[in-house]
Design brief:
Layout (H helix, E strand, L loop, with lengths): L1 H28 L1 E3 L17 E3 L4 E3 L17 H4 L8 E3 L8 E10 L6 E7 L20 E2 L3 E8 L7 E11 L8 E14 L1 E6 L11 E2 L2 E3 L14 E8 L7 E8 L20 E10 L10 E12 L6 E7 L7 E9 L14 E10 L11 E6 L8 E5 L11 E4 L1 E2 L3 E2 L1 E2 L1 E5 L9 E5 L4 E7 L14 E7 L9 E7 L7 E8 L7 E10 L5 E3 L6 E3 L9
Parallel strand pairs: 2-10, 12-18
Antiparallel strand pairs: 1-2, 3-5, 4-5, 5-8, 6-7, 6-9, 9-10, 11-27, 13-21, 14-20, 14-22, 15-19, 15-21, 15-27, 16-17, 16-20, 18-19, 21-26, 22-23, 24-25, 28-29, 29-32, 30-31, 30-33, 33-34, 33-35
Length: 545
Amino acid sequence: MEMVGVVLLLLALTLIAALSVSHVVTAQEDLDFGDAPEPTFPTTMAGNGASHSILVGFSLGANIDSEPDGQPSLQADGDDINGSDDEDGIIFQSALIPGLQTCIDVFLTNSALVANPMLDGWIDFNGDGYWDPAVEHLWGGLSQPLTSGNNTFCFAVPLNASRGSAYARFRLSDGGFPQPDGPGPIGEVEDYRVYIEFTKWDQPPTRKDETDECYWGWDEISIYGDGASGNPGYPIVADDWECRDARPVTDIHWWGSYEGWYDADPPYEPPPQQYQPSQFHIGIWRDVPAEPPNTPFSHPADLIWEWTVNRADLNEHYAGCDFYTTMQNPDTCFYYDFEIPNDEWFIQDPGQEHVYWLSIAAIYPGNEPPQQYRWGWKTRKPEWNDDAVRIQIPDAPRLGDAYIDGEPIETQDEGSWDTSFVLTSLPTEPSPPQVSIEITQTTDAKLSWRHVMTDTFNNPVTINRYYVYRDASPYQAPTATLLTTIDGPFAPGDVIHIDAGAVGNASPNYYYYVRAAISDKFGNDVLSAYSNHVGEFDFTLVPGT
């Protein structure tokens, strides 16, 4: 019996030890980490990266998986490609445009019935590679309560935000977690590479004064091809803007309403009498300037660029309300994003500055607009130059068609009116340098490259600084160490030289990369892609071999 007792005791101790080991492994495996790029963002355990203990049934989105450590990557997708794609909880409703509000949809899975689910978020608005808890913690630094299913939150993008790529981090927790780094309670961390757009033309809706709840103005009916059935038809609305640089128009954003409709969702009526447009016609026209008395107001000339886009592809969503003295009640204001396909970007005519016109018009099936809730483009007080116009003829323009007849949009009490839209562009990134390396007799590595003069669209740019990186591993530019910077001014044709340091040590060999930088209008650096990678290779020579 004593032997049986000893055996049972040994088995029990073995089982306890096995369970203890199993518990340790599970705790390690059941952690969720982020994947923003290091060394600037805290992602791995060594860098005090963000992590949360996983509780099954409590996550952002439907999926969550565990990692042994953070998975830093340039695209913030290291977690996605290392296991399941579990960064599915955040959807950006609209583009990140400096000075404007953007909204996100946040989906919470909470079958675990966690009592106090909260969301915290950060975006690196100034582009310094760090989430500053004091100023970049969204919603004024306040954790946002979540309910099961979809949640919508909005925030303003700072006017001086650094244009180009940025990184966002969102943390789900029980009770809130106000820091972007460090281990947290049960929950999940999701990192995203986002884009802060370059504004080519900025004309958002306005309010009559700061205390107004709604935007000031009405929805000016703009319908494409309505006169094709023989009716007098509604006009197409167009407004002028000035192209001040050579960057292409890559995105078009605008605001509109359904006349007499006040609800967070667009009006719906099944075909054939449907209230929603099926498509939108978007056009860019050349300009006819005002030259009284023969041309009393400026207006479009001829249509030189056009797109026909399905309404379902425009990210239509609630943006507030609009109101004017002629309206009995406010209308719901909706916001639209058109991300232009790369091969259809609008690129201005050669030269420095040009005036163009943008037209936006709803297309209804059979060119038959509904009897109520017709779509209109949001008006606003004037931004620049002349009024927006109603184009009466042609009512269904195609490329090359010319403006024939129309009128400016004016009211007797307040005079001129414009429409609400924003045009944005991909950042003008400098072309990357092409670097050469040589080893001198003094055993120094010397780098050289010709001064960069153009951006990736072959437009002239002014480089104000070069960044030189060094790494001990090839093709690891995102984690390379900044060796030095070289500040301008630089002259056309310059060849920049730099002594990168002594060589001759076979361990390690070094690899070098260079990036060119221009400044945006707020003084932030906009960097080129990494240059070609050049390396110095040292070999230990042993006598007799």
